[in-house]
Amino acid sequence: MQQYAGNSMVNRMIRAARLENDVYEELERDRDATTQALTVVVIVAIAEGIGSALSTLFAGVGIGAAIGGLISGIVAAVVGWVIWSFLTYWIGTSLFGGKATYGELLRTIGFAYTPNALGIFVFIPILGGIIAFVGAIWALIAGIIAVRQALDFDTAKAILTAIIGWIILIIIYGVFAAIGLGFLR
């Protein structure tokens, strides 16, 4: 396995995408990496947003919708990262006996978002959706590794923690979407 010099954000993103356990351990300990993790989430959200915006423009919906989608996507990604990190922290420590701080989950999960940058290709007919889906599955696997390493427990507990947290997050998003649709009427 190739070692990368230093702990630059880009090098950490590459290592996180390569599913290297050591980078998640490194991020867990590096309290200064929380800002880097936020930056990763925003960069990935911008990449996904660009792909979605291009899809919107190619569909003829208009630039306003594309820009609105880009901005709301970035906000949703950051809020989702904060909530999912908290949920995995709470579930992992309360239900499964993991040992971590909320900050450790923020850092490791933030970098696990890296493969979602493949969402930039979603505008490509058929192939783009497949590429984005592969990126999402890859990011989920990275997230499970991040949870496992941060909470210092086995893979089965990490999978359960990540999935339970993800389901709760989807429910939260659904409630907010329903409330938002109610206001539009």
Explain the overall architecture:
This protein has one domain (9-176). The radius of gyration is 17 Å and the shape is globular. With 185 residues, it is mainly α. It is built from 7 helices and no strands.
Round the mean pLDDT to the nearest integer and report it: 90
Give me the count of strands. Answer: 0
Structure annotation, total helices: 7
Going by helix content, strand content and strand pairing, the class is mainly alpha
Helix fraction, binned, reads over 70%
Strand content: under 5%
Largest sheet: none
Based on CA inertia axes, which overall geometry fits? globular
The termini sit apart by 55 Å
Which spans of ≥5 residues are poorly predicted at pLDDT below 50?
A: 1-5
Quaternary form: single chain
Radius of gyration: 17 Å
**How many domains?**
1
Order of helices and strands: HHHHHHH
